Amino acid sequence: MKLIRPLAALALLIASALPAIAADAVFPPGLRLGMVPLVGLSTAKTFPGFESEDGSVKVLITELPPAAYGEVVSAFNSNPAGAGGVKQDKIETPAGLAYFTTESGKAGDTPVKRYSMIVPGAGFSGYVAVQIPENATKIYTDEAVRQMFASATTRKQVSAEEQIALMPFKITDLAEFKDIRTLAPGSSIILADGDESTGYESKPFMILGVIGATPQAADDRARFAQEAALQIPGVRESRVTMSEPIRINGQQGFETRIDGVSGKDKVPVTVVQWIRFSSGGASLRIIASAPRDQWLAAFNRFRAVRDGIQPKG
Questions:
Q1: What's the mean pLDDT in 140-152?
Q2: pLDDT of residue 201
Q3: Helix, strand, or coil (residue 255)
Q4: Gap between the Cα atoms of 42 and 50, Å rounded
Q5: Between residues 269 and 280, which one has the greater pLDDT?
Q6: Residue 311: is its pLDDT beyond 90?
C-alpha cells in the first residue's frame, strides 16, 4: 500500500470524541466525490473534506489520476492479507467497489487510527483519508467509518460557477471553453476544448493558477519565466521562440512562447506562458497550448481569458 499510506498522513491530528452518522451525501466544493460525513463534521475551511468545529477531527477528500485505483486494486490482490499491521478490506458503494485500509499509528505522541479508501470515478480516482485519536474510537468506531465509506458517491461534473468561485481571482471571459475542471481547489483550473477521456493536447486549452514568491528584478524575472516555460509538464522537445516583458492589465508581466510536441501522439504545439507579477503575495501564471495549425484562432481566445482575469473584492 505504498500509494495510500503516505497520503493518509495528510489527514493530520485528531483529538476529540463526537457522535457518529449524519444524513445526506455532501460534496466538498469543486470535487466530484462526496459522502455522508460523520455527525459533528462539516465542510472544512482550509482543505477539501470535513472537519469538526474545533478542527480536531478531519476527513480529507481528494481526486487522484484514474490509474491510481487500478494500482491499489493490484496491490490488494497481490497481498490480500495486508502487511505491517495494515488491515485491508473492500466495500460496495454507489461510486463502485471501494478498497480501504485500517491501521494504528501515532500522530506525534497521540495514538491514532487511520483509514484510507480509494474508489473509481469517471476520469479520476477518489481518495479519502481519515484519522481518529484512540480516545475517540469508542464513538467513531470502525463500523461508523465503514458506513461513511459505504456512502461514497460521485457526480459527473462540477459546475463551472462552483469551480471558478474557488479561485482567488475572477474569470470574466471563458472564451467559449466548455470543459472546466479544478486541478487544485483554490489554486489552479483548466479551461479546455477537449476533455479527460480524449486528452487535452489535440485541442486548445489553458491552465490558470497562482504561484508563490517571484523575482522582483527585471533580469531575474526574465530568467525565471524562461526556466518555468521550459519545465511545463507534458511538453517535450521545447524551444523558446519569444520571451519578453509586457504589461498585463496594467501590471508588470512576462510572455514566453515555446514550440514543442505534446501527448503520446507527439502533437506539434505552440505554448504561451504569461506571468503577471505581484509585488507581494502570489503571482498569476497562465499556460495556454494549442496545436500549431490551430494557433492563430486560439491565441485570440487565450488573450480574451487573460485580459478578463480580475482580482476578487
A1: 94
A2: 86
A3: strand
A4: 5
A5: 269
A6: no
pLDDT at 215: 83
Q: Give Cβ neighbours of residue 313 (< 8 Å, ≥ 6 apart).
A: none
| pLDDT surpasses 50 at 62 | yes
HEC string for 240-254: EEEEEEEEECCEEEE
Residues 6+ apart with CB under 8 A from 240: 226, 229, 230, 256, 257, 258
Residue for grid cell 511538453: 235
Distances from the Cα of 270 to the Cαs of 193, 252, 287, in angstroms?
A: 16, 23, 11
Provide the grid cell at 301: 481566445
The model's pTM: 0.72
| Length in residues, the chain | 313
32 contacts 121 by C-beta, under 8 angstroms: yes
Rounded Cα gap, residues 223 and 93, in angstroms: 50
Residue 79 has pLDDT above 80, yes or no: yes
- SS3 string, the chain, reads CCCHHHHHHHHCCCCCCCCCCCCCCECCCCCCEEECCCCCEEECCCCCEEEECCCCCEEEEEEECCHHHHHHHHHHHHCCCCCCCCEEEEEEECCEEEEEEEEEEEECCEEEEEEEEEEECCCCEEEEEEEEEHHHCCCCCHHHHHHHHHCCEECCCCCHHHHHHCCCEEECCCCCCCEEEEEECCCEEEEECCECCCECCCCCEEEEEEECCCCCCHHHHHHHHHHHHHCCCCEEEEEEEEEEEEEECCEEEEEEEEEEEECCCCEEEEEEEEEECCCCCCEEEEEEEEEHHHHHHHHHHHHHHHHCEEECC
- Write down the pLDDT at residue 7: 36
Using only C-alpha atoms, what is the Rg of the chain?
A: 22
